[in-house]
Amino acid sequence: MRDLIASTPGWVMVALAAVVFIAVKVASWRWRPWAPCWCCKGTGKHYRDDGKVFRDCWWCRRSPGRRLRIGRRVWNRFAKVRKAAS
Prior knowledge:
Order of helices and strands: HHEEEEH
Strand order of the largest sheet: 1-4
Distance between the termini: 46 Å
Shape: elongated
Largest sheet: 2 strands, antiparallel
Strand content: 5-15%
Number of helices: 3
Number of strands: 4
């Protein structure tokens, strides 16, 4: 096994690593579509400077402090187009 790895060109190893990385990212979009909102830190609320008054987070749009990840938005768009085409 060690000889196989040593004889493999470097660009093949880089390409294989890139394919594995992309596969893991796509799988994470499928299994974990939600991420905590970066703006309100997952609370769903924006507090005033003194911390006494809050309003709904405008970024996650009143969801419970979650937002769809960018990759999942792309995934959903392609699924919608594919479903409309069939």
